[in-house]
Each structure stands twice: as structure tokens, then as C-alpha cells.
Amino acid sequence: MKTSAIIGMLLLGLLMFGSSTSFAADQRWAWDPDAVQKMLYGEKATGPQAVSIVQDPTAVGTPVGKRGPETVKFTLEVQEVLGVLDAAAKTTFPYWTFNGKVPGPMLRARVGDTIEITLKNAKGNSMIHNIDLHAVWGQGGGAALTNVGPGEEKSFVFRAMNPGLFVYHCATPIIPQHIASGMYGMILIEPEGGLPRVDKEFYIMQGDMYTEDSSDPDKYFSMHDMLVEHPSHVVMNGSAGALATNPMKVKVGDNVRIFFGVGGPNLTSSFHAIGTIFDKVYDQGSLTAKPLTDVQTTLVPPGGSTMVEFNARVPAKYILVDHALARLMKGNVAIIQAEGAAVPDLFRAGTVK
Ligand SMILES: [Cu+2]
After folding, report:
1. Which of 36, 76, 95, 323 could join 83 in a cystine, given CB atoms 3.0 to 4.6 angstroms apart?
2. What CATH number does residue 275 fall under?
3. Do 148 and 234 fall into the same domain?
4. Do residue 183 and residue 217 come from a single domain?
5. pLDDT score of 277 more than 70
6. Are residues 7 and 140 in the same domain?
């Protein structure tokens, strides 16, 4: 039966039962084509109907500890999904992701490990994808060996030669479009002996996104805006404001470590936490150089990272931003909430008695 015929019958039915109280309240169905559409086919996949692509910031993998070099295997699947771009604005975006989340999974290994990477491209996807890991010595960081069409998978093996916190991303033309659509993540290569223990670790990445200017809640990629480097959205973990709506929780006194990276493709982050000072900054994601100490704001370029640590000395909502603060207005914010008793010796209202 043709759609028009179905709608015609539906309208006739509504008119016939129009005298009943419940249907009287629903009279709008009879003249609102959008409402009829919704009744027949369900909600359009917008806003909350789209899936969340926000990576769990506590998904930091397993620390390597004191073990020796081993063989480790990671499998990533490229998933092209309609995701929530901004939950408050009820907007969506056609994301391209590693494992359905932005950033992709945090991979964790140690220096000297032999690492097998398998990249799958889910059936039903529309694009070719690959993976370039900055931890790799080899052509394209692995991209040359992992070009996969929909339904395909490819693997390669590399030896982790340098410790550090490294970005990975898709490097399929048009590369910055793949990155701006969500295809980035990080691989941590721990030094011999592992990293010092802390109480809480978090995994956060910043990205800049470019959508066409329209009133439609379903946003689409704008090549023009990407080329002129004029983002509509700047995000942490893929979706505007998501890590502020659902703050990360720590206790007062916890030593906190953040693995922070920038997928880009274009913007350098002036990474800053409002209400605290970074006790340590492992600048540029180098884990073999001595950390900087007592830093307010640190630069993180696209395709780069930093590892920062601070003690949550007082209860507060520590607000993570790029201190190029116009980007806060474009969705770039996260909150670490430290819960516990006040520490008036460090911070209090009023005057000195
Ligand atoms: Cu891709």
C-alpha cells in the first residue's frame, strides 16, 4: 500500500473517532503531517535517538606494571555511526569511529613489546579507513598496511621502540576529514618498570569539528569550514559538553593523572584546569624526560599529547578547558569533581582573623 493511502486511511480513522475525548486531545494528528509521519514510522533518528559516541574517560586500559616485554594484540573495528553531537542542542553528526567511541580505545603496552594491530572495517560502512599510530616505526605508522574497505580486515606487527603517550588516527584521504569525523585515539607505551602508581587515571582527547551551517538538527561535515579552520564545535571525548554533564569523580587527596591528547585536525590546545595547578606535566607526552613542575597551562598540538598529574588538594569542580576560551562556548569542557571535606587551611571564604 502506498504511503499516501495509509495516511489517508489514518486521517479518515481519526476523523471518525474524533468525538472521543482521547482522540479529541489528539486532533493535531489530523493536520500535522510531521506528527502523522512520527505515528507511522516512529521518531526520526535525531538528538537523543542517536547513539552516544562519548568514550568513557575512565577506560584507561591495564597498567603494565613490572612485567617484561611480551606479545600483545589489539583489534579495532571502524564503525560509522549517527552520534549525538550536542545533547543539549539535540544535534547529531555522522561520526566515523574506532570501536564506536571518540576517542577510540586507549591501547596500553610497554616498551619492547611486540604489538599486533588488527583493523576491521565494519560491513555496511561507506568508506575506506586505516590506522596510523605515532608509536610505530614503519611506513605511514601502519596506514600503508591497513587500508580496508567495508567488510575487510588487515593486520600488521610492530615493535614498540620508544616509550611515550602517542596519538593514533585514520590516515585515509581526505585525512583531516576522517580525523574531524572522530577517527583518533591514543596508545600508551609505558617505560620499563611501568608508570608510578596514582589513585585515578583519566583518558581525554580534544577534537575540532566542522558542520554546515543550517537549522537542521542533523549536522553534516563542512569541507569549506575545515579548510579555513573555522570549527563549529570543539569537543572533549567527541561530544559537546559531555564530560561536564557527567563529571569524573575523585576524592580529596587523590593523586590524579590525565592522559590528554589532541586529535585535531587543526587546533592546538592550551590545556588548563581551572582551580588547580598541574604538579607535573610530562611535556609533549614524553615519559623519559623529567616532567615540568607547577604548570598552569600547557600546549598540546594536533597529533600530540601530554600526561599531567595533580593532587586534588581541596574539594572542587576542576574545570578542564582549552584556555583559548571561545572554544568553551563551542562545547570544549570537562569536569573532574573532587569530593570530600573542606580544607580551610588552603582555601576558604572571608578574611584572615
Ligand atoms: Cu577513516
Report:
1. 95
2. 2.60.40.420
3. no
4. no
5. yes
6. yes
CA 97 / ligand 1 centre spacing (Å): 8
- pLDDT value, residue 353: 85
Domains in the chain: how many in total? Answer: 2
Instruction: Please give the distance, rounded to the nearest whole angstrom, from the Cα atom of residue 103 to the centre of ligand 1.
Output: 13
Cβ-count burial of 40 within 10 angstroms (0-12 exposed, 13-18 middle, 19+ buried)?
exposed
Cell of 269: 590546545
Same domain, 248 and 330: yes
The structure's pTM equals 0.86
Distance 265 CA to ligand 1 centre (A): 13
Average pLDDT of the residues in 177-185: 98
Tell me: do 172 and 215 sit in the same domain: no
Per-state percent for the chain, helix, strand, coil, to nearest 5: 20, 40, 45
Statement to judge: residues 205 and 186 lie in one domain = no
Give me ligand 1 centre to Cα 273, in Å: 31
The Cβ of residue 41 has, within 10 Å, a number of other Cβ atoms equal to 9
How much distance in Å is there from the Cα of 267 to the middle of ligand 1?
A: 19
pLDDT-derived band at 6, boundaries 50, 70, 90: very low
Q: What is the DSSP letter of 223?
A: H
Distance of CA 178 from the midpoint of ligand 1 (Å): 5
Task: Provide the mean pLDDT of the chain.
Answer: 90
Structure confidence at residue 21 as a pLDDT band (50, 70, 90): very low
Q: Does some domain include residue 60?
A: yes
In the chain, count H helices and then E strands. 6, 19
Same domain, 142 and 269: no
**For residue 208, how far is its CA from the centre of ligand 1 (angstroms)?**
16
- In this structure, the answer to whether residues 110 and 175 fall within a common structural domain is yes
Query: Is-contact 122 78, C-beta < 8 A?
Result: yes
